[in-house]
Amino acid sequence: MRRALLVVALVVTGHLAVAQDPTPFANVDRETALRLTRIVDSARAHGLPTEPIVAKISQGALFHSSPERIVSAAQSVATRLEEARSALAPKPTPADVVAGGDALGVAGVTKTALQAVRATSPNRPVVVPLAVLAQLVASKIPVSRATEIVTGLIKRGATNEQLVALGNDVTADIVRGARAIASLDVRLQGLNAVLAPGAVNTTTSDPVGLTSGSGPKKP
Question: How far apart are CA 183 and CA 169, in angstroms?
C-alpha cells in the first residue's frame, strides 16, 4: 500500500524536483525569461505555489518548445493553480493547490469536481482524492462518475491507500486490455466488501453493494 501512496506523492513532489533545476530560464531568450519571471513572481505574490510553474517551464525548455508555447503553458499552470485554490477554499494546503491544479490539467476535470471533493472532506488534506480523481478521468471514466465514486468512497471511510489502489488497479487493468468502466465496477465490488455501507454508484442504475454476483471478478 505504501508503494501505491508513493505513486501519488510523486505526482506532487515531482514538481519540486524539477523546479530545483537552476537552468530553466537560462535556456530561453532574455525577453522570454523576463515574461516567465513575471508569471512566477506574480504567482508567488498571490501566495500560490510556484514549483509547478517552474517545472512546466523546465519541461518546455527541455523539449525545445517555442518561447510562446512555454509562456502560454506557464500561464496556464498559474491560472489552474489560482482556480484550484479558489475551488478548495477556505484553507487549502500548498499540496492541495498543486494537486488541484494538476487535476484541472486533465481534460474534463472541472472546478465543480474539486469543490465536491473539498465539500466531502472539508477539514482534511485532499491531495490523494484529487490525484485519484484525475487518474480516473484520464483513464476515460466520465468526470461526473469519477467525482461520485471518489466522494462516495471518502464518505464511506476509504483510506488514502484504498483510493490509490483503486486508481492504480484500474490503470493496470486498462493496460491489460480491460474497459475502464468495467474495471472500475469490478474494483469497486472488491472495496464494497471492506467499507461501510453507502450509496456509491458503480453504474447509472446500480449502487455499489447492490450488484448481484458472488464477488469480485477479473475484468
Answer: 8
